[in-house]
Amino acid sequence: MAEKLMKYSEAVKQFDPVLGLETHVELSTKTKLFCPAEVSFGGEPNSQLTPVSLGLPGSLPVVNKTAVDYAIKLGLALHCEIAEWSQFARKNYFYPDMPRDYQISQYDKPTNGNGYLDVELDDGTIFRVPIERAHIEDDAGKNTHVGGADGRIEGADHSLVDYNRAGVPLIEIVTKPIEGVGERAPEIAGAYMRAIRDIVRALNISHARMEQGNMRADVNVSLRRNPSDPFGTRSETKNVNTFRGIEKTVQYEIRRQAQILSEGGEILQETRHWDEASQTTAGGRVKSDADDYRYFPDPDLVMLHITKEHIEEMKAQMPEMPRERRNRLKAEWGLSDLQMRDILNADALDLIEATVAEGATAAGARKWWLGELSREANAKGVTLEELPITPADVAEVEKLIADGKLNDKLAKQTVAGVLAGEGTPSEVVEKRGLKIVSDDGLIDKAVDEAFAANPDVVEKLKSGNMKPMGVIIGAVMKATRGQADAKAVTKVVMGKLK
């Protein structure tokens, strides 16, 4: 039965929303956090295991130094205080995909704490999100429920467990309560998550592919009557893995909770789940407090000691951050705010920059990635990155146009050939015979035939009426299968009219 919801505009008039986001970022290390098992996506189930990742008796964890360095870099990007001493703890709970029956995480002594991230909204407003901590932990495995609807446990007759992901290093970024969001709460949540994605990619510490589970968020929402009131009871919607889903979750929970509170009801502190198909959240289990996890220091791991010298070493390796990079490229490419926003919304900035680095103009690269290629990606339901064409290919197409070997029509056919797996742009042009016809003799003959077929048009042209010129050029293009150089055709036509 559908839940009653208050209109969003009314909900944010009556109540003050407070957000909290717990973002899990899977690190792109070669091995797991505490053992040498390989980390890769899509491997044969239960093939990337060691005694440590299975939690077998007598096996001992050894911390992955690269994962710690990645955590330090992220802490620096989030303006966190990097702790000289931090500690791993055991977080105890039973779930089938936790082979040890506890997760190794950080509790009261995290590596990174007390930071912030400034996020830019669509209208240029900067909103500061306070960060409580960014701690290191290992991931659980993956359950697949068989026999139920949409892979859900409800109605399933059995479940399969893949432990490959168990032990993969994560950083969990936990915000402080995000206050003052008002009606822009969904937009702020989405902008924050996009900013996190951009930062971890810039740092090259995570692929941040949400569809592969590299990055996901638990979305906490609570309401109170006035900003001066104590925080309300929160719900926590688990493992939302699309930006749109995060925004919709915030909006739905505000509407749902506002309706309950307006009728005198109480909000249950619980975990919930976002259902993409119905665009709703559904109740899960009553939320556990930290005490229920019985945290205690992991006796098999010594404390992490991060020296000031090592932090300085990590600072020296920090790349340009996404906001600064966007502003620089916007100025270099001469883009308006709207044009840059279109690039960001299409997730095309990296691809366009790489295409420019291969020799294309910024305008040409933007035209292809936001035009023909964006339409192709949308039609296939994939991201631009997943298309079988590279920035080098796009730059080569642009060079062929600049060299006068392709026109726009032939360039589109060339790109279609590359997408079809027929080879590089030059190979496609050769195989399909797509080069521009620049032979004066062939063009001269095609123009004569067009004149003969359209004597009335020729008379108008000779009298100085140039409007029907397109009829002649179109006939020549048809005769040459669109391969004639339009400038050459126009030159021949004008020569014959004298």
Automatic annotation (TrEMBL):
It catalyses: L-aspartyl-tRNA(Asn) + L-glutamine + ATP + H2O = L-asparaginyl-tRNA(Asn) + L-glutamate + ADP + phosphate + 2 H(+); L-glutamyl-tRNA(Gln) + L-glutamine + ATP + H2O = L-glutaminyl-tRNA(Gln) + L-glutamate + ADP + phosphate + H(+). SUPFAM superfamilies: GatB/YqeY motif, Glutamine synthetase/guanido kinase. Keywords: ATP-binding, Ligase, Nucleotide-binding, Protein biosynthesis, Transferase. It is an enzyme of class 6 (ligase). HAMAP family: GatB (MF_00121). Allows the formation of correctly charged Asn-tRNA(Asn) or Gln-tRNA(Gln) through the transamidation of misacylated Asp-tRNA(Asn) or Glu-tRNA(Gln) in organisms which lack either or both of asparaginyl-tRNA or glutaminyl-tRNA synthetases. The reaction takes place in the presence of glutamine and ATP through an activated phospho-Asp-tRNA(Asn) or phospho-Glu-tRNA(Gln). Belongs to the GatB/GatE family. GatB subfamily. Heterotrimer of A, B and C subunits. This is Aspartyl/glutamyl-tRNA(Asn/Gln) amidotransferase subunit B. It comes from Bifidobacterium merycicum. The gene is gatB.
